[in-house]
């Protein structure tokens, strides 16, 4: 296998170190992998009953939820329309974003809701 030129500065002096190619002239490092490393993994978000949730679904809250910074709580049985699914790893394990009357835009965990 021949070592390719540096993709950044086109230097022919690149060398291989384990799974990386390294350019001594500009310091660029790149992977030897020919496959695309960005594999999009679609997470499936399920409600408390195991039903798969999708964008725009209507849900119902299954227990009273305390709201940080507020003296009131979201009551059990509150219905919410038109939910938006978000990445739980970026949002403290909250995977649903929705607008709740009287509270505004909220982030919820799917374990506390059920699909209507």
Automatic annotation (TrEMBL):
<dbReference type="InterPro" id="IPR013987">
    <property type="entry name" value="YjdM_N"/>
</dbReference>
<protein>
    <submittedName>
        <fullName>Zinc ribbon domain-containing protein YjdM</fullName>
    </submittedName>
</protein>
<feature type="domain" description="Protein YjdM C-terminal">
    <location>
        <begin position="45"/>
        <end position="115"/>
    </location>
</feature>
<dbReference type="Pfam" id="PF08274">
    <property type="entry name" value="Zn_Ribbon_YjdM"/>
</dbReference>
<dbReference type="InterPro" id="IPR013988">
    <property type="entry name" value="YjdM_C"/>
</dbReference>
<dbReference type="Pfam" id="PF03831">
    <property type="entry name" value="YjdM"/>
</dbReference>
<comment type="similarity">
    <text>Belongs to the YjdM family.</text>
</comment>
<dbReference type="InterPro" id="IPR004624">
    <property type="entry name" value="YjdM"/>
</dbReference>
<feature type="domain" description="Protein YjdM N-terminal">
    <location>
        <begin position="3"/>
        <end position="31"/>
    </location>
</feature>
